Fold:
Amino acid sequence: MTSGIPYKAGSKESDTMARIVIYTRMFCGFCTAAKKLLDGKGVEFEEIDASMSPERRKEMAERSGGGRTFPQILINDQPIGGCNELYALDASGELDKLLAQSSPETIS
Ligand SMILES: N[C@@H](CCC(=O)N[C@@H](CS)C(=O)NCC(=O)O)C(=O)O
Structure:
C-alpha cells in the first residue's frame, strides 16, 4: 500500500498496528524485496518515493539516522535499516514483535 494515511483512528485494528514507513526509489530491487516481505506480513505501510526529491532524501537520512541507501524503513519512528536488516529481523522473530507494537499515533 502506498497510502499516506493507512490507519483509521479509533478502529480496533489501529490499536494493534505499527506505523511503518518505507523510503524507496524507482528501479530498486532491495525496495521491491522489502515491500514484498511487508506485503506478505499483511501489514499496511506508507511508501515515500524519494526518487525525484532531494528534500525527501535528506528527510530519509535524518529520520533513519544517516541511512543513504534505499530502502530505509521505520517502524513506529524507529529506524530499522534497509532490506537486509528487515529480513534479518524477520529471521530472528523480532520483526513480528515490532509489528505487533501499536503506534502511539494510531491509538485514539
Ligand atoms: N544493504 C542495503 C542495500 C541497499 C542498496 O544497495 N540499495 C541501492 C538501490 S537498490 C541504493 O540505495 N543505491 C544507492 C542509491 O540509489 O543512491 C539493504 O539491504 O537495503
Remarks:
- Confidence is low (pLDDT under 50) at residues 1-5, 7-11.
- Residues 29-41 form the longest helix (13 residues).
